[in-house]
Amino acid sequence: MKKKFYFLISALLISALVFAGILAGCALRSSVENLGAADGYYPETQIAEKDMAVAKEAAVASTVAEAAVAGQDEGAIPAEELYTQAGSSDAATTQAISTKLIKNGYIQVEVKEGEFNQVFFKVSSLAEKYKGYVSNSQTYSNSEGKMTSGMVILRIEKQNFDAVLNEIKAMGTVLNVSVSVQDVTQEYVDNESRLKNLQAQQERLLGLMEKSFSVKDSIEVQRELSNVEGQIEVIKGRQNYLDNLIAYSTIEVSISEPLPITDTTEGGFIGAVKRGARGALSFLRVATMVLIGISPLLVLAGIILIIVWQSLRARNRRRAKRAAESKEIQKK
Asked: What pLDDT score does 270 carry?
């Protein structure tokens, strides 16, 4: 009974604290929104709608002014046509933005035996020749310790993409070529629009910060300002990342010498022993992987078995104790 009573009291106290926190948060939010509305501050969505309305009104006013210069009366142009002409300016702005493309390429080249080091150096030097850089490179050796294959990732200015690709093709036998182009114009434009709205919201919040508020309202405005500034930094970082991918195309070059032809047939007693050893190693590898995979289940099963065993043992002890007590009672 005491445990249930303490549990109910704790649950009621936690519920009361959560409810009080919700009410306090709503009160703070409401006070800041009312204060901001009085000083010209609006949430992000309202700022976007307000900016769109102001831009539309400005476009309409510009259209009316052009009509007046041309000798037309404002009333001679229907309102629908005014808004249609104003909207065309947005379309022109969208068309004025250049297409943002990310271009990537992959080429696999096979060179003559003994020429890997020479070709690898030539491919790497293309980055400096075309004002780019090597972002990553790796080389691999054969069983004799000689470098016979490797990979180079070049970052090249986009206007030099085709020239670099053609030079690489001339260095050996081309085994595979692939080029991919990703259009990120829509994402870029959306990020620019979001950035402008957030910067407008930031200016309004900074204006509110300069005025005198109560400590409670200042804390709420500061919280909103920190959130807006964080979003601005994220968008700027994404735009810088996209600018780099757009300005510099990526070319991954795989270079290798021809693989040596070896006799893989193994006959006789030695061949049978080798095949048996490989089979045993394969079985041990598979068995080890299976044991590692089911080890969490084995641990869980062991814990359950220990708990069940301890429970049965405790129950047997209780039964033995009761039996001993009953015998003593019967003797008395």
From this structure: 79
Q: What integer is the mean pLDDT of 241-253?
A: 92
User: Is residue 253 exposed (0-12), middle (13-18) or buried (19+ Cβ within 10 Å)?
Assistant: buried
- Residues across the chain: 332
Q: Name the CA dihedral angle for 8, 11, 13, 17, rounded to a multiple of 10 degrees.
A: -170
Residue 3, pLDDT score: 46
- What the block records as the tokens of 194 is 């979001």
Radius of gyration of the chain (CA): 37
Residue 149 has pLDDT above 80, yes or no: yes
Over residues 8-58, the pLDDT tens digits come to: 455 555 555 545 455 544 544 554 444 444 444 444 444 344 444 434 443
Residue of 195, 192, 218 whose CA lies nearest to 205:
218
Average pLDDT over residues 172-185: 92
| pLDDT number for residue 239 | 92
- Domain borders along the chain are 99-261
Cα–Cα distances in angstroms (integers) from residue 99 to residues 37, 96, 178, 181, in the given order: 39, 9, 22, 12
pTM over 0.70: no
